[in-house]
């Protein structure tokens, strides 16, 4: 807990935007205080006289409140209730019923309890997205709305109007915008990331301000995924500080923030102040504070000349103005500001003016974060004393203060310009002319560029540039002394700008100081990169509803309930629940799998293969696309036939395998592995859209619409023939790797293919998912006279491994080519090109010591090799050599075989094909298990069984 420094409470009796009719109790660092709806935690703490919020991350120095919104770099708090946030600025936390918080010294702590709140997301596709509802944003949004466009207006604050929500013209503009039928306005919504093709991410804080009164059915936060045809950026500007010694003491605050606390929350930041500025805007803050009752003891302006109207107003309010002046340091006692040491013409050296608040303004930096994220350029403007947007971005306009403008009238006019520019680029009819609201305001004089107060080396160690990271002028000098010249390198050396605020007040200042120390112009020094997120976004908000049971959706086949009734043990394959085995009478997995394997090889079994990826590939160029995707030829496949195919990546390594059915001259059905179904569809689309967009072909997933049931074993022909009596299933009429259409009952279409993943006679029955349970039950019933046995994925793995059929991702690891798998026959030598073809010619892809798929038989006939076990050269002394032990490969699949009556395995072994018949060793713990290298085919190498 931080020992909070306090001053007398300073809530004014009237004014502000808060709801004084209601009072909210809240707790901070264990003490209960009160505030009002409309407060932030920061404004409520200041109203209660709390100045010190926490301590700094590295030095443990006291930290107060320096800003009034997301630009604040010091007021870090952890929220304990009614929701949990490990570290957020107190300036952005809405005061709400049940709020409990504590100061955080730079390191938040994640809660050990699950977050019970709801989060969700929403997609938008507006014609125009306007980010920021200040003067410029509202005008831009109105232009688009008047033209009949679909307009989305988002703003991070709780009410529109930007820096002046109380302005007379704001409510009228908002009412007009809301009245249009195609407009949407979101408050408390921060656009935190800009990406390609008009894509913007924003997070809405929907119920944080309601606290314990929040309805439980409404999500706490919502991520908005916005794809806009045109974007107007009206994000305003951030005030920047001037760096001086001990500028981190609680009580040092930005001038705009002090004015904001007064006007929004009716809170005075202190009782007496000194204002240190390089621009006119701080005078407005000083005059407002003085009028409200704060004693403003002096305004110290670095400029030699100040506008006469400002000095006259200051004199009228009894405020001394010192031009060509500096605040050398903040004077502190008890961990907070008690005075300021000044230097100015006519002042004695060492002059200290008593005050409890030191207000600073070094000018304004346009908030170009979103512009920069969208790859917009910025350049330093000497007149504005800031980096401003330059050049153009396709489909993007930046307006108002974000465009470097400093008056409300100029922002209104520029917002109108930006809105009309967006309409013109959309080729939209422009609305009838209307002028912008008239605003009575003065035109400010040019600011001076002042990054820091020159000081002795000893003061540089307490002249803080980044208050969250405890990074000082001395740290920048040290980085430059170490050879850093780029501001990007200085950032990483010093960590400036890497905190939660992403350098909103420190980044440009650090660039300016770096340029000064290097003796170059700041335009030449440049800035660091603005990256998303603009403000911190919780992982819970990004996850939305995709957590818990919804994190990885569970997919079930149409036969799932039948499997449950039969006591199946399930495993997760991709997102699918697949039966692994069906235990009977207390069987363990090994016993059940041995029984299932024996039943399939000796009679008939049935598998639910509905999880296989099924992709419809259609169009005149479908044959050409598949020829380019697969290593073997698919264009030569006849209608009514099936072909096994292999897909490789550009590196020539196996990516997936499966079967392809040619349905028509311009249509194929592609089957993929279960786990790769989505990835392969994406792979097809990626290559089609980026490399071969001229091909007239369409790919569509029908995985969820099709159920597939392999009926496998010597009696499978009897079962399939009984259910589909109109189909001739004889070898003569129904050849291997062919398919036939038939019906179930009177009119249920069924497609049956002669495909075998077990080496046995097999028929794959494909039917629409809606009819799947009925067809499955009919197959099971027809198979009962033959002892039909449902089998799961574990038995399927054993059966395929006995035939040497690899599983992609288990027997491959991304470094395995078709040749390594013994599948050179699946690589066409006729096709001019396909993905991976060129890589096959690389020397490394044809090296003799490549790992190749082989079979392994433990010579003791009983040891089942653990999958993943390493393989080494045979050891005559039966002892493991000292490390490092050269490894030849590893075991990829290992099972106990009912057919063989012993264990067997598949493995990737260096130069494996040349080692057939050799003896090798597999270390299992401290024991070496001797194995013989064999062919990958253990059962029916002649292939006689597949025809029954």
UniProtKB/TrEMBL annotation:
Where does the Aminomethyltransferase C-terminal domain start and stop, copy by copy? 851-940
- Fetch the Pfam families from UniProt: Fer2_4 (PF13510), GCV_T (PF01571), GCV_T_C (PF08669), Pyr_redox_2 (PF07992), SO_alpha_A3 (PF17806)
List the keywords (alphabetical): Cytoplasm, NAD, Nucleotide-binding, Oxidoreductase
Region (Disordered), start-end ranges: 864-884
The reaction(s) annotated as catalysed by this protein in its Swiss-Prot or TrEMBL entry are:
sarcosine + (6S)-5,6,7,8-tetrahydrofolate + O2 = (6R)-5,10-methylene-5,6,7,8-tetrahydrofolate + glycine + H2O2
Domain GCVT N-terminal: start-end pairs: 559-831
Q: What is its main location?
A: cytoplasm
InterPro entries for this protein: 2Fe-2S-bd_N (IPR042204), BFD-like_2Fe2S-bd_dom_sf (IPR041854), FAD/NAD-bd_sf (IPR036188), FAD/NAD-binding_dom (IPR023753), GcvT/YgfZ/DmdA (IPR028896), GcvT/YgfZ_C (IPR029043), GcvT_C (IPR013977), GCVT_N (IPR006222)
Q: How is the cofactor bound?
A: Binds 1 NAD(+) per subunit.
Task: Domain (FAD/NAD(P)-binding): give its ranges.
Answer: 127-371
Database matches in SUPFAM superfamilies: Aminomethyltransferase beta-barrel domain, FAD/NAD(P)-binding domain, Folate-binding domain
| Cofactor(s) needed by this chain | NAD(+)
User: SoxA A3 domain: which residues?
Assistant: 462-545
Q: Which Gene3D superfamilies match?
A: 2Fe-2S iron-sulphur cluster binding domain, sarcosine oxidase, alpha subunit, N-terminal domain, BFD-like [2Fe-2S]-binding domain, FAD/NAD(P)-binding domain, Probable tRNA modification gtpase trme, domain 1
Task: Report whether Plastid shows up as a keyword of the record.
Answer: no
Q: What is its EC number?
A: 1.5.3.24
Which family, according to the similarity comment?
Answer: Belongs to the GcvT family.
Q: What is this protein called?
A: Sarcosine oxidase subunit alpha
């Amino acid at each position: 807990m931080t020992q909070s420094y306090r001053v007398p409470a300073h809530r004014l009796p009237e004014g502000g935007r808060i709801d004084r009719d209601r009072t909210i109790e809240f707790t901070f660092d264990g003490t209960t205080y009160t505030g009002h709806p409309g407060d932030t935690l920061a404004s409520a703490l200041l109203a209660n006289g709390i100045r010190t919020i926490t301590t700094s991350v590295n030095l443990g120095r006291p930290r107060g409140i320096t800003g009034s919104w997301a630009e604040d770099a010091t007021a870090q708090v952890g929220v304990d209730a009614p929701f949990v946030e490990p570290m957020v600025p107190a300036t952005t936390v809405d005061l709400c019923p049940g709020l409990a918080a504590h100061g955080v010294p730079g390191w938040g702590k994640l809660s050990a309890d699950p977050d019970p709140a709801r989060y969700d997301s929403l997609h938008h596709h507006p014609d125009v997205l306007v980010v920021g509802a200040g003067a410029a944003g509202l005008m831009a949004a109105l232009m688009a709305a008047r033209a009949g466009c679909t307009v989305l207006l988002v703003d991070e604050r709780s009410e529109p109007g930007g820096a002046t929500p109380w302005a007379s013209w704001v409510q009228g503009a908002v009412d007009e915008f809301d009245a249009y039928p195609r407009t949407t306005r979101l408050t408390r919504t921060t656009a935190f990331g800009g990406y390609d093709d008009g894509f913007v991410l924003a997070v809405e804080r929907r119920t944080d301000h309601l606290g314990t009164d929040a309805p439980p059915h409404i999500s706490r936060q919502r991520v908005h995924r916005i794809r806009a045809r045109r974007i107007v950026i009206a994000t305003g500007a951030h005030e920047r500080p001037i760096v001086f010694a001990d500028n981190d003491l609680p009580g040092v605050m930005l001038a705009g923030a002090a004015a904001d606390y007064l006007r929004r929350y009716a809170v005075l930041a202190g009782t007496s102040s000194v204002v240190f500025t390089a621009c006119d805007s701080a005078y407005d803050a000083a005059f407002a504070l003085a009028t409200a009752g704060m004693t403003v003891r002096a305004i110290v302006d670095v400029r030699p000349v100040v506008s006469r109207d400002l000095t006259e107003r200051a004199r009228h309010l009894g405020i001394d103005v010192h031009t060509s002046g500096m605040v050398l340091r903040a004077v502190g006692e008890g961990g907070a500001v008690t005075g300021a040491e000044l230097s100015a013409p006519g002042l004695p050296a060492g002059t200290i003016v008593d005050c409890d608040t030191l207000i600073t303004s070094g000018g304004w930096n346009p908030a170009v974060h979103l512009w920069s994220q969208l790859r917009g350029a910025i350049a330093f403007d000497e007149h504005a004393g800031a980096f401003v947007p330059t050049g153009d971005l396709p489909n993007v306009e930046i307006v108002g203060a974000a465009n470097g403008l400093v008056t409300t009238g100029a922002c209104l006019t520029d917002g109108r310009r930006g809105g009309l520019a967006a309409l013109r680029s959309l080729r939209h009819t422009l609305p009838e002319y209307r002028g912008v609201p008239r605003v009575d305001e003065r035109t400010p004089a040019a600011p001076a560029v002042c990054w820091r107060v020159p000081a002795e080396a000893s003061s540089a160690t307490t002249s803080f540039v980044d208050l969250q990271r405890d990074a000082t002028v001395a740290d920048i000098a040290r980085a430059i002394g170490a050879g850093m010249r780029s501001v990007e390198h200085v950032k990483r050396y010093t960590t400036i700008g890497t905190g939660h605020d992403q350098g909103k007040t420190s980044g440009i200042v650090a660039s300016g100081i770096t340029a000064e120390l290097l003796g170059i112009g700041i335009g030449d020094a440049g800035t660091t990169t603005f990256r998303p997120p603009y403000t911190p976004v919780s992982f819970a908000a990004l996850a939305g509803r995709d957590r818990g049971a919804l994190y990885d959706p569970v997919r079930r086949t149409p036969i799932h309930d039948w499997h449950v009734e039969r006591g199946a043990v399930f495993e997760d394959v991709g997102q699918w629940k697949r039966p692994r085995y069906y235990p009977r009478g207390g069987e363990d997995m090994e016993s059940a799998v041995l029984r299932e394997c024996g039943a399939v090889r000796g009679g008939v079994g049935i598998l639910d293969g509905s999880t296989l990826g099924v992709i419809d590939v259609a169009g005149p160029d479908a044959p050409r696309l598949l020829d380019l995707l697969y290593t073997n030829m698919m264009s030569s496949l006849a209608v009514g036939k099936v072909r096994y195919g292999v897909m490789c990546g550009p590196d020539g390594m196996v990516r997936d395998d499966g079967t392809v059915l040619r349905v028509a001259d311009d249509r194929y059905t592609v089957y993929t592995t279960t786990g790769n179904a989505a990835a392969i569809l994406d792979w097809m689309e990626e290559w089609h859209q980026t490399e071969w967009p001229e091909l007239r072909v369409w790919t569509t997933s029908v995985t969820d619409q099709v159920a597939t049931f392999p009926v496998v074993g010597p009696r499978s022909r009897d079962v399939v023939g009984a259910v589909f009596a109109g189909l001739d299933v004889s070898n003569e009429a129904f050849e291997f790797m062919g398919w036939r259409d038939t019906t179930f009952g009177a009119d249920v279409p069924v497609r049956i293919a002669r495909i075998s993943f077990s080496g046995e006679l097999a028929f794959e029955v494909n039917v629409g998912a809606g009819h799947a349970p009925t067809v499955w039950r009919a197959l099971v019933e027809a198979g009962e006279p033959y002892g039909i046995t449902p089998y799961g994925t574990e038995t399927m793995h054993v059966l395929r491994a006995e035939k040497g059929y690899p599983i992609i991702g288990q027997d491959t690891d991304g470094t395995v080519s078709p040749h390594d798998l013994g599948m050179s026959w699946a690589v066409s030598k006729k096709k001019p090109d396909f993905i991976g073809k060129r890589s096959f010619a690389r020397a490394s892809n044809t090296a003799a010591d490549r790992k190749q798929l082989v079979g392994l038989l433990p010579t003791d006939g009983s040891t089942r090799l653990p999958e993943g076990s390493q393989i080494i050269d045979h050891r005559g002394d039966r002892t493991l050599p000292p490390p490092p032990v050269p490894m030849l490969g590893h075991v990829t699949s290992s099972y106990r075989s009912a057919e063989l009556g012993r264990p067997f395995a598949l493995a990737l072994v260096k130069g494996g094909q040349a080692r057939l018949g050799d003896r090798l060793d597999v270390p299992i713990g401290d024991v070496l298990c001797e194995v013989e290298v064999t062919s990958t085919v253990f059962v029916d190498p002649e292939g006689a069984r597949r025809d029954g």
